[in-house]
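Tip: read the tokens left to right.
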């Protein structure tokens, strides 16, 4: 959307002034703002796998969300007195949330699983980049407005669409001025961190957080329990896998500069490989101090990768980056030495689909697909992995 270059700054300045005035007016109104005493605590939301957030519950339907990046969010029921629940620095978010600006693609799937897509007003994914048909249709119909990339959203449209919460990915840390501007305009910012979970079911358990945001706690818990049961059933069917029967598996992609990008040992995908009867090919990878960060991947030299994965029983190419590879010939175009790899000679090379990371709610199917690739039982169809020929 192209805006009038003179009108937009004026509108933003006016909105900023109004947001400041509204905040100050709310502070002066004791019927709307309460800091002390906070409502009585009722305990914490039970979490089994997620470690990147926690939720404390309070009387009156209030909740305090603490995220591992150090930020707190006070969830205040609509129409109730504003309070930071004893955390002066907490961001106040009115619930059930509506008029969402969705700039975290990982949240889309969980929002769909909760049947809450109608709560989204704007997004940062263009129709051609959106992997979810329902969301793409909503954008095409105008129910959801595309406002540009996360690093340069159309603030005027966000204001015109009355957005009341911005759901951002951790990429927003690279655009701090965007976050500052959103908050200046009175739009609270919540940063989604499900991709930092080290447990596969920990990523899925973020659906409980969205249940709290959208007033769908029961639906969120029910969905999590169903998917967890599917995973547990698969794991139980595998039984104890002897070390001699485990297959060596590499998950990677080749970067444009020739490096090979691999998962760090202990990553949630490495744990899926382990559960499904594999051994991650780069389990012994040693990371430097600078590489020991929160990111789940690391670049390694071709020599390091070749030494670790040339004898791997299964190769899985990360198709979420650059579209992946559609055939063995495309893989060879990355590096001719792939022809020497054991998995290439046995036909055990796979490409993951672009939506494997996006569809958090499909974690049970992801387990099943990895088991298919690792076990060699190719009878049924796979959703997230495609075998290369």
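Filled-in amino acids:
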């Amino acid at each position: 959307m192209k805006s009038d270059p003179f009108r937009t700054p004026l509108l933003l300045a006016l909105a900023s002034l109004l947001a400041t005035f509204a905040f100050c007016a709310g502070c002066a109104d004791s019927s709307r703002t309460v800091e002390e005493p906070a409502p009585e605590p009722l305990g914490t939301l039970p979490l089994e796998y997620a470690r990147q957030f926690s939720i404390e519950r309070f009387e009156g339907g209030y909740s305090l969300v603490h995220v591992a990046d150090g930020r707190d969010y006070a969830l205040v029921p609509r129409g109730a007195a504003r309070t930071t629940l004893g955390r002066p620095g907490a961001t106040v978010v009115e619930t059930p949330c509506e008029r969402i600006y969705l700039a975290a693609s990982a949240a889309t799937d969980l929002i769909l699983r909760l049947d809450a897509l109608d709560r989204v007003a704007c997004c940062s994914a263009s129709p051609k980049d959106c992997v979810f048909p329902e969301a793409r249709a909503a954008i095409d119909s105008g129910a959801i407005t595309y406002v540009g990339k996360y690093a340069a959203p159309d603030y005027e449209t966000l204001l015109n669409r009355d957005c009341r919460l911005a759901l951002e990915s951790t990429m927003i840390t690279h655009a701090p001025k965007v976050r500052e501007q959103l908050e200046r305009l009175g739009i609270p910012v919540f940063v989604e961190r499900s991709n930092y979970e080290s447990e596969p079911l920990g990523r899925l358990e973020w659906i409980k957080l969205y249940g709290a945001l959208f007033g769908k706690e029961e639906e969120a818990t029910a969905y999590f329990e169903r998917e967890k049961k599917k995973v547990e059933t698969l794991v139980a069917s595998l039984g104890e896998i002897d070390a001699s029967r485990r297959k060596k598996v590499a998950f990677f992609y080749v970067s444009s500069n020739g490096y090979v990008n691999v998962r760090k040992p202990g990553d949630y995908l490495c744990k899926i490989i382990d559960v499904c009867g594999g051994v991650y090919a780069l389990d012994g990878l040693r990371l430097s101090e600078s590489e020991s960060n929160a990111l789940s991947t690391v670049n390694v030299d071709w020599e390091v990768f070749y030494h670790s994965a040339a004898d791997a029983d299964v190769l899985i190419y990360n198709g979420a980056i650059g579209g992946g590879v559609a055939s063995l010939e495309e893989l060879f175009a990355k590096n001719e030495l792939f022809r020497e790899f054991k998995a290439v000679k046995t036909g055990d090379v796979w490409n993951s689909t672009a939506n494997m990371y996006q569809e958090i709610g499909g974690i049970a199917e992801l387990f099943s697909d990895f088991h298919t690739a690792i076990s060699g039982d190719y009878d049924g169809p796979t959703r997230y992995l495609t075998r290369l020929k």
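The longest strand covers residues 247-254. Residues 348 and 373 are 7 Å apart (CA to CA).
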